Amino acid sequence: MHCALYDAGRCRSCQWIEQPMEAQLAAKMNDLHQLLAEVPVDQWCAPVSGPEQAFRNKAKMVVSGSVEKPLFGMLHRDGTPVDLTDCPLYPASFAPVFAALKPFIARAGLTPYNVARKRGELKYLLLTESQQDGGMMLRVVLRSEAKLEQLRAALPGLQAELPQLRVITANIQPVHMAIMEGEQEIWLTEQRSLAENFNGVPLWIRPQSFFQTNPVVAAALYATARDWVRALPVKHMWDLFCGVGGFGLHCATPEMRLTGIEIASEAIASATQSAAMLGLHDVHFQALDSTQFATAQDATPDLVVVNPPRRGIGRALCEYLNRMAPPYILYSSCNARSMADDIGHLPDYQAVRVQLFDMFPHTAHYEVLTLLVRK
Where do the domains of the chain lie, and which CATH numbers do they carry? Predict the structure, then answer.
């Protein structure tokens, strides 16, 4: 993939961009084999990849520059801004939105936040697109509510120019730190979520809930999990760290009981809505801490699905699973190192199947799906 930003030395986020995709996949598979060297694996499945460019459904842009000439992108450690609106990882549909947002910022009087001076209001722009219908969600991250009414007043013109912006919010992040969003979300549109669909499963994208950024590879990941699980004798499953319910909703059948646990209430609202659309009745999604929920139970289901953040599931949950002994564990990880550590703390389980999903081309990162069976 060619990238003018990389060639000019302005952005080095895609550190592996000069390697062919085949070489990238081989290096990732080698890394995964090394991390699981102490774990006997019955079957290594072929890695799954997707497009090498224009694959992202989300842009997270630091806003810098001036109100008349804002820049969308990132800041180097020395504070130098880089405009990333031409990043080839974004689809072509993002370009007209970025172009319209720059004069909109001037009309709304949203002064970009200056980190060094601790002045200004506009910190970030977060743009997400649905692959189902091209609808978009725009989140404007502000330091305070001081410019909120100006933002509201300028919105009708922006919406007329960009009708694909279905969901628009203002997020308030008052802390002088590199934190992407704050706790307060203010909806500026009637519509509060974007409809998405992977493999015939309706999903919903909302503010403050995690959603995979590579739809093609994410759909393959969910479909693979579904195929693996439906070959097992599962009547009751837990989906821990469930997010918007992608794994559980793909794997569940009308005859199966599904319990989904996720700390983010917005994600649980999305999962609950999807379950109702699918006609799944024996489904229970709750906004709780996954480890606290699990370790408080007296019995486990047939299958426990875990999709934790990069830190992994941790010693406490591993010890609980060892003690309660569910027949199957399906582990999806964005950090194979922490997954390998967790599997090391699950000595009573055998890794029967492992598959790598190249969710993050041109970087060393990847997703991995592992099916563990009780010995």
Answer: 4-52+214-374 (3.40.50.150), 58-191 (2.40.50.1070)
